[in-house]
TrEMBL record:
Keywords in alphabetical order: Transferase
Gene that encodes the chain: srlB
Pfam families tied to this protein: PTSIIA_gutA (PF03829)
NCBIfam families linked: PRK10377.1 (NF007696)
GO molecular function, one term: transferase activity
UniProt cross-references to PROSITE patterns, sorted A to Z: PTS_EIIA_TYPE_5
Segment forming the signal sequence: none
Modified residue annotations for Phosphohistidine: 43
This protein's name: PTS glucitol/sorbitol transporter subunit IIA
Coiled coil: none
Domain of life from the UniProt record: Bacteria
Enzyme class: transferase
Gene source species: Pseudenterobacter timonensis
Amino acid sequence: MTVIYQTTITRIGESAAEALSDSMLITFREGAPADIEAFCFIHCHGELSGSLRPGSRLTLGEASYPVTAVGDVAEQNLRELGHITLRFDGQQAAEYPGTVHVAGPVPQAIHTGCVLKFVA
């Protein structure tokens, strides 16, 4: 498998962990507007070197999740803004254009220094 995107979580907005209780994880690159940053896991932006698609895998720390659906603008948002909304629900069709759905349990805690990557 080839790594197509890799980044490291550098800050966690004060309300970011609340989204985990809704089976969501929202990311944005460093330099996000303050009102958005509060709800995001902030990371040092990596370069997207391939396509996000069902069948890819997300790794978050030691956990690995199969990608089940990718919204129409999720790849562009990740490439340009480091922004992506991950849903841990295994849906086969993207609920929103910027959402990537994965199958597996919602992470209980994410800490700074955690590595997020997509492999194809």
